[in-house]
């Protein structure tokens, strides 16, 4: 915690060391007027990677790092075809509390690109993790190939999105845009 009297004293001492005379006015009053104590800190959350993608679903997650002293009442993922999704868009609900969670993104459209963010809500408000971009697979317009030396199967779609499966095409991972 900041001790404003010590800050004021340190500033005066620094001026003295520099050989400058100064008189600092009621420092504490100015600082306290500047600080907005009504705005409490929101939860700190990170969005974890999308670990599985299909034509109409994906699996992702989040991790609530700090509740900042307020109980987390809901958490999950929110997603949209537009950047900066919020809980006003499609969202999942994965209970309450801190820590890691996974979530299913459902009702996605094959061949669309999505933005996803983890969210956490407390009595103070809702905060969001970093945004992650991923496309869904459109198997009808994609080319598939295999690399026999690595046991991986690859798909590239008409938008040049590359997907990889290392488990006989059960789980697909979005790799990159070529």
Tell me about this structure.
12% of the residues lie in helices and 40% in strands. With 178 residues, the chain is mostly beta strands. It starts with a helix and ends with a strand. Strands 3, 4, 6, 7 and 8 form a 5-stranded antiparallel beta sheet that branches. The protein is built from 2 helices and 12 strands, in the order H-H-E-E-E-E-E-E-E-E-E-E-E-E.
List keywords for this structure.
single chain; 178 residues; mainly beta; five-stranded antiparallel β-sheet; four-stranded antiparallel β-sheet; 2 helices; 12 strands; 12% helix; elongated
Summarize the model shown:
This protein has 178 residues and is mainly beta. It has two helices and twelve strands; from the N terminus they run H-H-E-E-E-E-E-E-E-E-E-E-E-E.
Low-confidence stretches: none
Reported for the largest beta sheet, the result is: 5 strands, antiparallel
Structural class: mainly beta
**What percent of residues adopt helix (DSSP H or I)?**
10-25%
Mean pLDDT score? 87
Number of helices: 2
**Count of distinct strands:** 12
Terminal Cα span: 50 Å
Rg for CA atoms: 25 Å
What amount of the residues lies in strands? 35-45%
- The succession of helices and strands, N to C, reads HHEEEEEEEEEEEE
**What's the overall geometry?**
elongated
Write the layout of secondary structure elements.
Elements: H1 4-17, H2 27-34, E1 44-53, E2 58-66, E3 74-80, E4 90-91, E5 99-105, E6 113-121, E7 126-128, E8 132-135, E9 143-147, E10 152-156, E11 161-165, E12 173-177
Antiparallel strand pairs: 1-2, 2-5, 3-4, 3-6, 6-7, 6-8, 9-10, 10-11, 11-12
């Amino acid at each position: 915690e900041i001790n404003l009297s010590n800050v004021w004293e340190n500033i005066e001492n620094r001026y003295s060391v520099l050989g400058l005379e100064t008189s600092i006015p009621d420092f504490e009053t100015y600082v306290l007027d500047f600080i907005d104590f009504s705005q409490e800190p929101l939860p700190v959350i990170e969005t974890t990677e999308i670990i599985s993608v299909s034509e109409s679903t994906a699996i992702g997650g989040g991790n609530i790092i700090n509740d900042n002293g307020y109980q987390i009442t809901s958490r999950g993922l929110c997603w949209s075809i537009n950047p900066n999704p919020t809980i006003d868009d499609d969202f999942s609900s994965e209970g309450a509390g801190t820590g890691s969670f996974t979530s299913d993104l459902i009702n996605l459209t094959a061949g669309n690109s999505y933005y996803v963010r983890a969210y956490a809500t407390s009595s103070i408000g809702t905060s969001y993790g970093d945004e992650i971009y991923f496309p869904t697979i459109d198997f009808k317009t994609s080319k598939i190939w295999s690399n026999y030396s690595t046991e991986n199967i690859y798909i590239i779609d008409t938008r040049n999105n590359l997907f990889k499966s290392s488990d006989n095409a059960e789980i697909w991972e979005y790799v990159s845009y070529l």
